Amino acid sequence: MEEWVGGLWHKYITRKANPEYDDARVVFDDVHKSVGMIFRALGGDAIKRVEAATGREYLSRKSLLQKISGDTQLVSLAWQDEESLRLPESLAIFADKSLNYDLYIWLAVLAAHHGGSFSHWAQNNQTLVVNVLEKFPALRNRYQRLAKAFVASRPTIESLPKEEKEMEQAIVNAILKPGSVIEFPLVNFAPKPVYLWLYPSSSADELIMPEYQEANKGKETENQENKSIKKAETSRKKAERTDAPDEKQGMMIFRLESLFSWSEFSKLDRGCDDSDDDDDISKTVDDLDKITLAKEQEQQKSAQIKIDLDLPSASEDDIPLGEGLKLPEWDYKKHTLVADRCLLQPMLPKGATAKKLPIKLQKLAKTIQAQFEQLRSVRYWLKAEPQGEELDLSAWLDFHIESQISPTPQRGLYKSFRGNNRDLSCLLLADLSMSTDAHLNDNVRVIDVVQDSMLLFGEALQSVGDSFAMYGFSSVKRHHVRFTMLKNFNERYDDQIRGRIQAIKPGFYTRMGAAIRQATKVINEQKSSEKLLLIITDGKPNDIDHYEGRFGIEDTHQAINEAKKLGIKPFCITIDTDAQDYLPYLFGSDGFTVILRPEQLPMRLPQLYHQLTTQ
Question: Over the stretch 477-533, which tens digit does the pLDDT of each residue have?
């Protein structure tokens, strides 16, 4: 009974302490597509993800009700960094639902025109608002509605302590008349959250205002350490760094009455934790406001050991071809193509023997081959040839008439029956990273679908007579990019090639830029006038070194542009349901397709090739 009453009291007092309009709430998940489109359409970084921001502790003064409720004040604010734009998980600030929606739109517009850094949080936001309203005058009325409603929702200035009145008045003036406030008074707390403005990408309470920082010097020193943010799937957490425990020094301290806690870090050496209640680590992370990171003392050695353990022994690994090829890599921070940064190793699948097409694919292969019959070489008459099988009566009649009028040099009077082979080459590049080991159902993995797709692709192109090659790739850091040759342009598609395809297995990571550069080099050596580079993948570029997030995306983007400049047409086929977040930036809006049902890939791949080569 006491717990039930206490629960009701807690809900009541918490709702009173943090009033929101639940009936007018707008959830980020419901608007993220439209908000993302607006952000990118108005000049926002096309590669940035638009995601929800998790609530974080905010050190503003608590009201009496907030003190009674005892809850830590968590706010979800808008901010961005190099990787993503983060917007509140939901907005229920206004009683009018349309205003909450308009606020999402306004924040997206602001973020699209913000450089990403702050020298003075309040002044920079005022300048940003002024610039946006000057560029888009049609937004003035919408902003004024938001500003007036937001100011009305804030505590009245008369209700605030004396030392905070001046700050609140300055904030209100800056909101209603952006650009009018040059100096802000000293305060000991951050002002109430300003949801109409953007915040720094570091801790929410770390407002980059010299006045605020000076007034708080020496206070809340812990928050100065929380500048590192740990990236998660859909949320960000505050982080702090500490030294790892040294297992070689000191004694082991343990008390039987101790309870292990995820939220409190102790500098104790726990070699392993075999408790049974830690299965859902992601849920535990969601419950934490702060994540403590310890740097391993033997980090470099352990990283090297990890790589060595990742790679199979030479006797079990695929067969290397040569010493490897050095390739450049794009450093987007320096805006430079760094020469010889990657080492690409051509390889052949180990244990590959000649094999027939699997029985399960033979019926489908015949169907696809029948569809491709229309693309076979079409024979037609070449007219006015100097030699040929028949006399070209039309050319002879023209020559006879012209020669009667004036002397006319003799020309071709025959026609010849010729075949017209399609002047194109295609290279199929398959992502063989470890993620392809994932199961689509109890019996089929992603790698199985990729194998079937490549086999049917080979059967289709063999029937039409087009020139094609097939390769796979994966990587372990920049010095080991594996480029598996399944069929080169000079080889005939036969049982030996089928055996290689059936011998491929999941590899490691996805350093896509290096693989695309090598594929570009291979296909560019072909003499055909049309060159098509098809890429099959199940995710975005990544590796275990710096090739994560934006670095990998930008390098891949650069590699694709290099291919386009050489007249090669790249096209991506993916089964990643999140591909819309990054593939338009990499390949363009018409340079990719998403297969929502991966099991359809074997049939869809030849169909896509048919469409791409008959346009």
Answer: 999 999 999 999 999 999 999 999 999 999 999 999 999 999 999 999 999 889 999
Q: How far is CA 424 from CA 49, 211, 369, 562, 590, in A?
A: 37, 66, 18, 19, 20
Contact at 8 Å (CB) between 426 and 522?
Answer: no
Cα distances (Å, whole numbers) of residue 48 to 53, 448, 509, 553, 558 = 14, 32, 22, 10, 16
* Strand, helix or coil for residue 323: coil
116, 81 Cβ separation under 8 angstroms: yes
CA distance 322 to 567: 29
The answer for residues whose C-beta is within 8 angstroms of residue 540's C-beta and 6 or more apart is 510, 552, 553, 576, 578, 582
Is residue 242 a contact partner of residue 294, using CB atoms and an 8 Å limit?
yes
| Number of Cβ within a 10 Å radius of residue 23 | 8
Burial of 596 (0-12, 13-18, 19+ CB in 10 A): exposed
Per the confidence metrics, is the pTM higher than 0.70? no
What pLDDT was estimated at residue 202? 62
- 326 contacts: CB under 8 Å, gap ≥ 6: 339, 340, 341, 342, 343, 344
pLDDT in tens, 260-299: 444 445 454 544 444 455 555 555 555 555 566 655 544 4
327-372+422-613 is a CATH 1.20.1560.10 domain: no
Query: Which residue has 């990236």 as its token pair?
Result: 231
3-state SS string for 73-128: CEECCCEECCCEEEEECEECCCCCHHHHHHHHHHHHHHHHCCCCCCCCHHHHHHHH
Map out the domains of the chain as residue ranges: 2-222, 327-372+422-613, 378-420
Structure tokens at 286: 């969601």
